[in-house]
Amino acid sequence: MFQIALYQPEIPPNTGNIIRLCANTGCTLHLIHPLGFSLETKQLRRAGLDYRDMARVNEHESWEQFEKAHANQRIFAFTTKATTKHSAASYQEGDILLFGPETRGLPEPLLESLPHEQLLRLPMLPSSRSLNLSNTVAIATYEALRQFDFPGLG
């Protein structure tokens, strides 16, 4: 129903947790290279448990390749630089939820290439820098699913 895209993820356990999330929600995961780790990393396997085979995971060699393959789909980019809350968006089937690398977030040129209303943030205290990536992905994904009354989920 929804697609999750990780732009150059760096920390294996976060990606493993997101693989598990995708396996349990039916979302497709896109990994945009370069990755900060090997998909065979023990930490990734441990965090993803045996869910890797249950999740749809696609790899893309670059942002340009990913963008070209998904040119006709809406992309919502999650960034601490946005002013619109994640819950204010009206999600549609097939939307892509895009998240940046843990240590630096999405690059400015990428953010500038998207419509302003498709830049979203999760609310947090003003003194906070950011939330954990896998937590952010879970919160955003479940808000999108909630808007559709959790289709296919029991």
Strand content: 15-25%
Number of helical elements? 5
Spans with pLDDT under 50 lasting ≥5 residues? Answer: none
Mean pLDDT: 93
Tally of strands = 7
Topology readout:
Layout: E1 3-7, H1 12-25, E2 28-32, H2 42-48, E3 56-60, H3 63-69, E4 75-78, E5 84-85, E6 96-99, H4 108-112, E7 119-121, H5 133-146
Parallel strand pairs: 1-2, 1-6, 2-3, 4-6, 4-7, 5-7
What does this entry look like structurally?
The chain is α/β, with parallel strands linked by helices and 154 residues long. 31% of the residues lie in helices and 18% in strands. The chain has five helices and seven strands, in the order βαβαβαβββαβα. The chain has a seven-stranded parallel sheet. β1 (3-7), α1 and β2 (28-32) form a beta-alpha-beta unit. α1 packs parallel to α2 and α1 (12-25) packs parallel to α5. The longest helix is centred in the first third of the chain and has 14 residues, at 12-25. The model has no long low-confidence stretch (mean pLDDT 93).
Characteristic terms for this protein:
154 residues; alpha/beta; seven-stranded parallel β-sheet; 7 strands; globular
